[in-house]
Amino acid sequence: MMMRQLLFLLALIVPMIARAQSVDLVSQAKKEGGEIILYTTMTVGDFEVLNKAFKEKYPSLNLRHVYLSSSRQTARVMQEFRAGRVQGDVLGNSPEPLMYLKQQGVLGQYRSPEAKNLLSGAWDTDGFWSGITTDLLVTGFNPRLLSKSAVPKSYDEYLRPQFKSQIAVNRGVPYPLTGMVSLRGDEQGVAYFKKLSQQDLKLVEGYSHTINMMAAGEYPLTGFMQVSKLDAMKRKEAPVDWLTAAQPLATISTIAIVKNPFHPAGAQLLIDFYLSPEGQRALAAAGKIPLRKGVKSQSKDIDQLMEGNPHVIRAEGSYDKYNNSSFHDSNLLVN
Q1: pTM above 0.85, yes or no
Q2: What superfamily in CATH does domain 11-134+253-296 come from?
């Protein structure tokens, strides 16, 4: 009986403490000037959706958006860091650049109380970054060129002889390698990538362009393709469909605080908002796949897929080992 009462009290007290902490951060953020500077790869359109929700919750705070591509952001942050201090408070990028910045001593630690509500494995165990959205890497196909029964049902089936010269991939990302290494270990992951690189793949720049070319009939298949973009095209009744492996690879977009930010309370508040139900719903409204449990995407098929057991890609160890892991540089691995 006493245990039940204790659990009931905890259920009441914990949310009260969290609200009090949030109010305290808002007060501190106002004293810092009420501004938070966000360096991110998020487009202006997507940011406007997020910022609207942020302003509804925190009308007295101003979120300043600085859009930079992944590589340009990393270069700018390192330049500012070497000059004495990073001008941004919060960085939004993929895990690999943030892992590099962590190794360079650029990032600060912050363990958001909201992180516990995310998909397992979607945060840094050392507290330097947290995932905010995900995407699952599946097989896309043009049903006018290939029947569903003939589509490869797993990543290993990409290696079958009949699919040589039939699969297009986004040449600019490392996920076919980092994903398989994360899933199977270094030796088996690199061995898989070498075999895949010998499949005479169609190397195309960008996820959206790769899918558009498939829909136009340039090739029947896309491998390791973002399900969000495939599903959006399918819902628009384009000649596009998709299948998933038993355990699909999941990429994540990540967020981190810089060390000694100009606006530390505001930076923590923004991280908390990204991971909160309101922030995750805003990201879903922008077409993203939320990482928070219980927050749905715009697609029932994707939500059902998320209920399975996706493997979150975690690029561990030295960042340098992944620098040349895109298909653009695959000759470095197969020679």
Answers
A1: no
A2: Periplasmic binding protein-like II (3.40.190.10)
